[in-house]
Design goal:
The chain is α+β, with helices and mostly antiparallel strands. The protein has 8 helices and 8 strands, in the order ααββββββαββααααα. The strands form 2 sheets. It has a 4-stranded antiparallel beta sheet with strand order 1-8-3-6. A 4-stranded antiparallel beta sheet has the order 2-7-4-5. β4 and β5 form a beta hairpin.
């Protein structure tokens, strides 16, 4: 069960067996059914979770009560509300499972123990934050500078298997368009 996460961290830094054993001992394995809220708006995020299996969405509700999906996270990704987790402030988002999930969860206190006893893990988490920041930045630029069709094509390139796992209306919520407009884009592309 820990092999996949150990491979993930070893891509960042080559760890000794005792460092990995400490890391693994601090992780909590959880099986979470689909349609489960891991976090709701107003709660303080108490986890950083590595996805062993499954798909999760992070989103907020706009002023009209519609979902605005920030991210989809699948296997070999981490999910959390970093601001809420690190600052221990109420979250402004929801994190919900879209499929049955297997997670390896790190609590704030476990992370502190890990970083104190195995400080080389700082690099892993720094690289992880950089990866997420780059992904958010790319998404922001795309939302500002690209058409809806270009954003959809980028989505398909970045997440080729996700359309088989996620309903079309949620893809539309991620792209910032209506499901009807997404249907028109898909029809237009199928005629090309």
């Amino acid at each position: 069960m820990y092999d996949v996460i150990n491979q993930y961290v070893n891509r960042c830094v080559s760890f000794q067996e005792e460092e990995l054993a400490l890391f693994n001992s601090l992780l909590q394995y959880q099986v979470v059914p689909k349609k489960t809220f891991l976090l709701q708006e107003g709660e303080i995020c108490q986890f950083e979770a590595y996805i062993v299996k499954g798909c999760i969405k992070s989103y907020f509700l706009n002023e009209n009560g519609f979902e605005v999906i920030l991210t989809f996270a699948t296997e070999d990704w981490w999910v959390s509300d970093m601001a809420s987790f690190h600052e221990q402030i109420p979250s402004r988002m929801y994190i919900e499972t879209l499929e049955d999930c297997e997670l390896l969860v790190l609590s704030p206190s476990a992370k502190e123990v890990l970083l104190e006893k195995a400080p080389r893990f700082e690099r892993v988490f720094r690289l992880m934050v950089q990866r997420h920041l780059a992904s958010y930045q790319e998404r922001l630029f795309g939302n500002i500078a690209k058409s809806a069709q270009e954003r959809y094509l980028d989505f398909l390139q970045k997440y080729p298997t996700l359309p088989l796992r996620v309903p079309q209306h949620q893809i539309a919520a991620y792209l910032g368009i209506s499901p009807e407009f997404l249907s028109k884009i898909r029809a237009r592309l199928s005629h090309k």
